[in-house]
Amino acid sequence: MNKIIKYVLHDIFRNRILLAYVVLLSLSSFGLFMMNEDVSKGLSSLLTVLLIVVPLVSILFTTIYFFNSYEFIELLVAQPLKRSNILLGVYAGVGLSLLTAFWIGIGLPVIIFDGTATGWYFILSGSLLTMVFVSLAFLASVITRDKTRGIGIAMMLWFYFTLIFDGILLMVMFAFSDYPLEKLTIFLSCLNPVDLARIMVLLKMDISALMGYTGAVFNQFFGSSLGIVLSMTVMLIWIILPISIALRIFKRKNL
Amino acid sequence: MISEFKFCRQLKHNTAVTKPNFAEAPFIRACFALVMLLFCSFSQIEAHEIIVKQGTKINTIQKALAMAQNGDIIRVTASTYFVQDLLIEKSVSLIGTGYPVLDGQKKSNILIVRAPNVTIKGFIIRNSGISNIKDKAGIRVEKGDSVSIIDNRLENTCFGIYLAKVKGGTISGNTIHGINSVIQSGNGIHLWYSHYISILNNKISGQRDGIYFEFATHCTISRNLSEQNHRYGLHFMFSNNDTYTFNTFRNNGSGVAVMYTKYISMTNNTFDQNWGSSSFGLLLKDISRSTISNNTFSRNTSGIYMEGTSDVKCVRNNFLNNGLAVRMLADCEKDTFLLNNFMGNTFDFTTNGTENLNFLKGNYWDKYAGYDLNRDQKGDLPYRPVSLYSQIIEKLPSAVFLLRSFMAELLDKAERALPSMSYVNLYDNEPSMHMIQR
């Protein structure tokens, strides 16, 4: 398995797309931090990049990489290796390389400009979000054999988590606006890793003061140690669940 | 000399009217000048200087006060004097050289002024008593008209300078740092039922309210710095016809509050970093016929929060990087926003109603995305400062959950494409294309 990881890492680090991703992230983060004389303002602009670009690139890059190395995976399957080891090896390789890209592109500038707890929280949430979307990409890839379809499913997943879910949430809120919804929204936010990551970072930032009563309820929950543990657990579940489903499908799959 | 001249002129005029004979005029003038001269020299002889010094006969301020007469100067040399409830009932000038310390030992008031024309200058006044029932102050002035409190340092006082029923006076160059307690702190400069007071160049921190006005009219508050107070940097209640200019209010518990007042002029002030979930730069409640001009509101949760205001002119202010620049409740009417800059605010304007009785024109909005075809420097499309997302939050407070999400940004973009989605009837018909220089 280690050999597979090593090979995948070696393969990806030569990849120009990953390099472009690193450059894009560092340009946007350095640019945003330098444009805003106020660090917290730069960080809050960078949040948009974190919530839109990072999931999109993570899920698309992983899916495309998986399909491009399909023949390599087929070759490995022909060897006396466990299928789960093969998939997990590729998963770890892709995940590690995307995490490295994220740490260099966003982590480093954030630490340089804002080394406070908020910055570390930001990086932690981004890393978790990257892994969640790599997991989801593996799920999208093993469901189908067709590259275009796989990419389509990946895109749909991204679209669902960044936009459609929030739209549905807003509609639900309108429908049940007569009821106290704060606790319900805490629960609903657990159903979307992007929302969860956003709330986790947002509550650490100044802007949370704008959230009024709802923000106070969130702060009470996500600020407590139980809330932090719980939200981390939910994020981990979002990483483990898709990849284990993908593993199960991959094991039984007729390649 | 001027008054004499005027008097003579009047005299001349009168005599000219009654008698055409001018022969007596020079004589009267000479007599008058002589009397004036005598009077002046007399009063000069009258002003004694009493020096309070350790090791001499007069080693306490009490002794000096007992000896003093109206108009005397008491010079206090540097040392520590333990005083409490020291009553000043004569019109004297109390002047400290080398900052003598008046220590109240946390018992009661330190100085109490009950005479007109008293000056207190150059003291360090510290450790007043702390009480929840009585307002204990560093310097308490009761009916002492034309008081001057200049260049003092007040430390650990419950109330700093407390004026009750004072007419005329100056409070300038004082530094007031309170006991910094959330519950027990008093106000830095407290005016109750006082009029025509100038408050200049003071620095106030660690108090409950930096400056507090209740029934104080015709006062000027200028070039003060009020920061890190637990409640308001400045607090107005029922105090008409006051002016405050060039002040800085920074990082106070909840900003500046101006309430139930008419004819206030607020110009060239800075409202900075009043950040917190129930904080604001400037709170206006039931204010009318007032002017807010050339102020800077930066990094406040709400720049201005307006409730029940009418006829307030808001001209040439800068709203920079606030959470929400202006929150104007639906009961505000006839307020005008002209030539203001709105830049980097999360929300420019929020309101809780749909009808609008206020007027916006010629402001610069950094979120404005219109065009200017006829090059008159005014945008051709009106700008709607109340964003669709903020309207949704207004109806559905829990929608604030989506703050900073892609969805929220998309909603505002959608509103720009389809303005009919917005139902709040508030817009700037002539938004400026460029930042307004002032």
Question: Can you tell me about this structure?
Answer:
The complex is a heterodimer of chains A (255) and B (438). Chain A is an all-alpha fold. Chain A has one domain. Chain A has eleven helices and no strands. In chain A, helix 6 runs antiparallel to helix 9 (193-202). Chain A is globular and about 60 Å long. The mean pLDDT of chain A is 90. Chain B is 15% helix and 36% strand. Chain B folds into three domains: 2-45; 49-246, 3 Solenoid (Pectate Lyase C-like); 254-386 and 422-438, no CATH class. Chain B has five helices and 38 strands. At the A-B interface, helix 3, helix 7, helix 8, helix 9 and helix 10 of A face helix 5 of B.
Question: Can you count the helices of chain B?
Answer: 5
How would you state the average pLDDT of chain A, rounded? 90
Name the CATH homologous superfamily of the largest domain in chain B: Single-stranded right-handed beta-helix, Pectin lyase-like
Report the principal-axis shape of chain A.
globular
The radius of gyration of chain A is 19 Å
* Average residue pLDDT of chain B: 88
Query: What does the main sheet of chain B amount to?
Result: 25 strands, parallel
Structural class of chain A: mainly alpha
Uncertain segments of chain A: none
Q: What would you call the structural class of chain B?
A: alpha/beta
- Low-confidence stretches of chain B at least 5 residues in length (pLDDT < 50)? 1-20
Q: Give the strand tally of chain B.
A: 38
Using the 3D structure, state the CATH architecture of the largest domain in chain B.
3 Solenoid
Most residues in contact: chain pair: A-B, 37 and 28 residues
Here the CATH topology of the largest domain in chain B equals Pectate Lyase C-like
